[in-house]
Amino acid sequence: MRMLILSASLMTLAGCAGFGIPSQDPSQAWIDLHTQQEDTLQAVEVDDKATHDKRYFEVEPGSHELTVRYQFAVQPTNIGPGAEPLWRDCQMNVKFKEFNAGERYQLQAGNIGFRPWAKLYDQQRKVIGQGVPAGCQHS
């Protein structure tokens, strides 16, 4: 019985390993997503086409518009005394004209009170693009 449980556990772990982030294609630009630990940032669309994986973007060189979904909590200090955190669900668009093959970029999101922000960084951590809010709702 122990052997059966152990075998099942190992097969489950092996199956999970297959769902890791794939290797970067050197002919594409790669965009990592980063946010604060309790917030959620997901890839939604590239040039109005749905992404296949919500954890990152991989795009051809050139100009693209990236759409992300950013979910975050507005802290009580930004709402009023005795308030509970208020969750916001926002979409933001980031345009950049010069994605390069083989380069890795980072899209970082955060918020100031109720307002979300997003910044696109190149490999040298230089800001090369900023997000434009495309609508928010309370969750």
From TrEMBL:
Superkingdom to which the source organism belongs: Bacteria
Keywords noted in UniProt: Signal
Signal peptide annotation: 1-19
Name used for this protein in its record: Lipoprotein
Source organism of this protein record: Pseudomonas vancouverensis
